[in-house]
Queue: 2 jobs
Job 1
Amino acid sequence: MLLIHCPYCAEERPETEFAHAGEAHIERSTEMNALTDEGFSKFFFYRDNTKGTTFERWRHIHGCGRYFNAARDTVSDKFLTTYKAGEPKPDLSKLVDDQTNAGAKS
Amino acid sequence: MRRFSGFAVAREAMRAHKGWGQQWDNPEPKSSYDVIIIGAGGHGLATAYYLAKEHGITNVAVLEKGWLGGGNTGRNTTIIRSNYLFDESAGLYNHAVNLWEGLSQDLNYNVMFSQRGVMMMAHNVHDVQVFKRHVHANRLNGVDNEWLTPEQAKAYCPPLDISKSARYPVMGAALQRKGGTARHDAVAWGYARAAAARGVHIIQNCEVTGIKRGQGGEVTGVETSRGFIGAKKVGVVAAGNTSHVMQMADVQMPLESFPLQALVSEPVKPCFPCVVMSNTVHAYISQSDKGELVIGAGTDQYTSYSQTGGLHVIQHTLDAICEIFPIFSRMKMLRSWGGIVDVTPDRSPIIAQTPVPGLYVNCGWGTGGFKATPGSGHVFAHTIAKAAPHKINEGYTMERFTTGRLIDEAAAAAVSH
Ligand SMILES: Cc1cc2nc3c(=O)[nH]c(=O)nc-3n(C[C@H](O)[C@H](O)[C@H](O)COP(=O)(O)OP(=O)(O)OC[C@H]3O[C@@H](n4cnc5c(N)ncnc54)[C@H](O)[C@@H]3O)c2cc1C
Ligand SMILES: [Zn+2]
């Protein structure tokens, strides 16, 4: 079971308190009517499904109830960080550096 | 290939079984092939076999990053059934069941296909309505499926608890008598042996790391951990890793990869005659010929390539199993493991050409593709050989996610396996 840090509650809690909510930073067009079929399909059905660091949404459904984002390595399932909804994608190179440094220290 | 027969068994018995030999070769990769299949799971191996057998294309290599059958083929709970709702599904999965019925003879390899019946249980009014609808739709499509009362279900599967006080009351069940199980490893081995006998190269420990393309964007070969190998056509059959492999050709897929787990108990004497599935409480169970109870859990909620899942997911399934079958409540579980399944938005597979000339893909089987192995390989071989789909997989394109012609088994409340 994953341990997940909720950026709103500022606490690490077990995965069973959370619901996964798919890939993050997928923007819904403000003009859905103007979207082509291809555009809608990409938005609705196509996913990066990254092997490596993925950005994803979680909801603290049995806690504060809020959505937030996470960067997680899908090969090791380790979280690199979690951050509040609306905040920009964190800088990957920095995150990976932080992890390796932390690894080296411990 | 040395044929297996009653005579061969008798002969080997006379000489301490020393004459069986290696069942397929372990060749060095050639510099190029007519067709390269990426992934030596059941679907990839079956594709290679039917390319050779049905289309006379034998200059074929199947490249596998690990060992043959080490992906989902060797990790699944082997449930075989074809009682899906839609016409396209009936066509595809019934095609597979028909091939299963003659497969051991065709391959000269015992895949231990056992039509012991698959019983899907209804625990509430919604289940009853949905399953009855499935039974009717199936019968119109010539797919075997019948409705059982709780008493009939109990007669078919005696360990079942149908008492009124049960936590998950049994309100009836849909039974497909033609469904059952097969031995997963034997399916991979049987196809590998029969394909190799027709000249197909099976190359293990050979990971594809890139897909090379020519001037016109067409496929020219693949980069691998054992060097470049040229090919006129490439078929991707990489299950959970499909998005990752297709990325090498700059093709994004309508797929997400999730962990899916299974577990087996200690072996016991035969006590469980059929396959029972309960989608509502999430329990899948059968007994292997070795005597282990084979139990399938649900997917984890997050995407992953780790081939492991959370313990709470397994526990959830065992809770349900113990409620429905109280006799198993004190059995010990021996092993558990996970696979990575590639899931499409409508829970139906993609078996098709891609926007890249010469590149074909067979994926999206998600939690339930083992049952389709022979049918999938058969129609995919046709698609590659003819550069056009077989009638049966015409609708299984990627474009359906743009046109909206989904094959929506997800919404049809079909179960996972
Ligand atoms: C726990 C579990 C239970 C299941 N239960 C059932 C069930 O009861 N009934 C049912 O019908 N289905 C079931 N399934 C689903 C079923 O196992 C799959 O749909 C099916 O086996 C897929 O077969 P495949 O040949 O496409 O994939 P796989 O057997 O996974 O083969 C794909 C191969 O591609 C290889 N590969 C990947 N990337 C590369 C690369 N870059 N280079 C070279 N090789 C590569 C992999 O190593 C792998 O061997 C279950 C799955 C799991 C995990
Ligand atoms: Zn919270």
Job 2
Amino acid sequence: MATLRYREALNQALREEMTRDERVFLMGEDIGVFNGAYKVTQGLLDEFGEQRVRDTPISENTIVGMGVGAAMLGLRPVVELMTINFSLLALDQVVNHAAHIRYMFGGQVTVPLVIRMPQGAGHQLGPTHSHSFEAIYLHVPGILVAVPSTPADAKGLLKAAIRDENPVVFIEHEYLYGQRGEVPDEDDHVVPFGKAAIRREGADVTIVGISRMAVTAEKAAVQLAEQHEIDAEVIDPRTLRPLDLDTILASVRKTNRCVIVEEGWPHGGVGANLAALIQEQAFDDLDAPIGRVTGADVPMPYAKNLEQIAFPHEPQVVEAVRAACGDL
Amino acid sequence: MADHPLPEPEVAREWLETMLRIRRFEERAGEQYARAKIGGFLHLAIGEEATIVGSTRALRASDYLIGTYRTHGHTLARGSEPGRVMAELFGRVDGLCRGRGGSMHMFDLERRFLGGYGIVGGNLPIAAGFALAHDYLRTEDVTLCQFGDGASNQGTFGETMNLAALWNLPVVFMVTNNRFGMGTALERHSAQTDLQRKGEGYGVPGMECDGMDVVDTFRVTTEAVRIAREERRPVLVEALTYRFRGHSMADPEEYRTKEEVEEYRRRDPIVTFGDRLVAEGVVSAEERAAMDAEATRIADEAVAFADASPAPEPTSLYDDVYVLGGEVQGWYSVDERGAGVRRGEDIG
Ligand SMILES: Cc1ncc(C[n+]2csc(CCOP(=O)(O)OP(=O)(O)O)c2C)c(N)n1
């Protein structure tokens, strides 16, 4: 095991996949000479050259569309969008084309495109730069959605994403880039899609944490154990499409209680969807309504104090779990 | 290049004064950022003051201005109170946008500065929409829309040029070509580097000005605004300028050489204009120094004002998401406090 930062783990995955497969190439704004807005592509231009590490103009819709085209002809483009907020400019290409082309053309082609981008609040970037949009992509059939929360998963899932034949929306997190974690040494550390990770085992309640909120949920679970004698199981789904519902259901059947934590907005959120799935399949196993902890239902404000109360932290998770456990 | 004649002395003095005030304000903002009084991204326009002042001075007070995430100077040039601009940077309740927007999202309706936009290229269609409104409402107003060289590669650029030309809209587009979109040099991001020509195919004629020279920027923008106002058609002006600082505060600037930056710094628009005013007897060296001292005093005062302004009340989090009182009688929300009526429960 090596200890790596999340961004370094991603960098390794890119380097390894580019070395393994000549068809893999990168496109994005400031990924080359500037080494990436968040330094994920550090050093790759020097190593692989301009043919394979392409600085693009600021043209999100077009670079994603070009990724679609290149992928249709057999290349393996990995497009970096500077943040998920700017992916809204490319939403047309993602939904109307990347996601639908295979289906609409009767299965004649594949679109093995990976779109990487970070999301998340907490850096006071205001309403155009701070949102979490996994729910938007979760909504769309035809794409896969990854939300890695650890360096090991970041690496393993990115490698899996690049190798898969489907278009993948790969959602990183700005807060996590600097976080360290153990990453397996083997040169082929691949994490399969559709397999949740149980971050902590517990008997009293299941907490599902999405993206960075998996980390928040784990911290909350420690507090719950130490201060409230509540033994929480923490599940990180790691990918939202495909979703490992079985692992979540098995946990809920054991604990009979569930709280879902996400950074995005509540309406139509990941938690709303997951709560529906759980109650459809495990209604009789539930002893309490499924709890949700989400970002506030507002555009993300700039002011530090407002921003901090507009997305979930441990205390809100602790409170929601205690409510679900009848401890309040 | 032959210098264009100076305007009336008091006009020239005001230009120098405003450029100095923007510069000292932004320097202070940079310091406050280093002290963590300001969060998020801080994009300074140091080096671009002649472009800002020369272009905005070509507008009437009733005209509209719209820009990017690099617009502290634009708000100041339009007359916004420096204290309120700084308070916005501090995320305080007295900020222009009550601390909601921060550095990248300035706005001052009263002064017809209609924003500060964080999405590159996002402001171009909005500007054309303003111009559509001027046309529709048969006013004499003109909109000046500023964006960077990098933004000229967004799809919105071509789409907006086309519609503005097709519908004969009174709008002046100004591409502030500071030679970089973040760390990507012009030659690496745009096939057409003569940016004033980028609108030609759409029917938007181009003009160019020396964005390091406030007089030239004013002269060219004045003509562009006249065309928009009188001939009712869009114009694209390219202002050739340079930013002396990094793209934002966290920029190691590995994409350009120190020599290049030095070379442009020798053409500092404030120094050159100040020198010229002294040489031509418009201001004395003492007056110039006094102006500078006053600019510093105003910037310090802005910092003190911002520092004294309180943070927004936590209960204000849900204010202004919707207009209440019409179709929306109360603000129903699901958040960390649980489902329930939040704002405006007493309305109706
Ligand atoms: C749609 C979108 N894509 C990317 C970004 C990130 N970004 C912010 S500023 C910038 C460079 C813009 O360069 P330019 O238009 O030349 O303006 P300048 O910063 O030089 O004033 C980039 C890529 C963004 N804010 N919005």
